[in-house]
Design goal:
Blueprint lengths: L18 H21 L3 H24 L5 H26 L5 H28 L8 E3 L3 H8 L1 H8 L8 H16 L3 E3 L11 H17 L1 H30 L1
Antiparallel strand pairs: 1-2
Helix pairs in contact: 1-2, 1-3, 2-3, 3-4, 3-5, 4-7, 5-7, 6-9, 8-9
Length: 251
């Protein structure tokens, strides 16, 4: 005689513990809506939504670790959100903005960048699982996908900041898109800023600088974002030199 099935145990969870996943879902909504605005021709709003998705991406993981609520589901959701927000949305917006003028080469560039991004994320996920017991490094391998998304949209940001510039040739944008894709899957060392520290005495200057930067972004968004992107490119060059010197010293 079959035994009656026992009712499943009811488990409750505090709603605040869902906040990291809610931020990830909000980032997905921002990325999808960015694609919509891109194909409607509202390119500034589309880029702003990708930027919002990158901010939410930076918050959800850190919040989960602070709350000690990191889960396997949250990690997978975050990775899928990264592919959508930084591997798909930026190049579809670029395609609507300029790459559709060179239809075949433009679409090849879209596919190339998206595949590079998913390969970058897959490599990062595998290395994260294999290095759980190792100390975190000061460097990433390759350009992270959020940074790649901002870099690939740089021609759009420059056009928003300086409106009287001549139009960038679409074929150049296609080659530039492929270049950023290659940087993501390269072995190029890039700075990991998550463990960056400052002296306690300099904390007030850091807070002041952050306030000035926030004011600049709110007042002169595109010019400030372009300058920050060029500063990040300089950091890529400096990281490469620093990494090579450290390896030479160790050798």
């Amino acid at each position: 005689m079959n035994k009656p099935l026992e009712p499943a145990k009811q488990t409750e969870i505090r709603l605040i513990y869902l906040l990291p996943n809610l931020l990830t879902v909000a980032a997905i909504c921002a990325g999808l809506t960015a694609v919509r605005f891109g194909y409607e021709g509202n390119f500034e709003m589309a880029v702003q939504l990708v930027l919002a998705a990158s901010i939410l991406d930076g918050l959800d993981g850190r919040l989960a670790r602070l709350m000690n609520r990191s889960t396997a589901v949250g990690a997978e959701l975050d990775s899928l959100a990264d592919f959508l927000n930084f591997g798909v949305a930026p190049v579809l917006i670029l395609h609507s903005w300029a790459l559709n003028e060179v239809s075949r080469a433009g679409w090849i560039a879209v596919l190339f960048y998206a595949i590079c991004c998913v390969l970058r994320l897959a490599r990062f996920n595998v290395s994260s699982r294999l290095q759980t017991d190792k100390p975190s490094s000061d460097f990433f391998v390759g350009v992270p996908s959020p940074a790649g998304a901002i870099l690939v949209m740089l021609p759009m940001v420059i056009s928003f900041a300086v409106t009287d510039l001549p139009a960038t040739p679409p074929i150049f944008i296609a080659f530039y898109t492929c270049l950023i894709g290659l940087l993501m899957i390269s072995r190029m060392p890039t700075y990991s800023f998550k463990d960056m520290t400052i002296h306690r005495a300099n904390a007030k200057y850091f807070l002041l600088g952050t306030a000035i930067l926030a004011a600049a972004l709110l007042t002169y968004l595109w010019a400030t974002l372009a300058l920050l992107t060029f500063a990040y490119i300089s950091c890529l060059v400096w990281a490469h030199r620093t990494y090579r010197k450290s390896k030479t010293t160790e050798g």
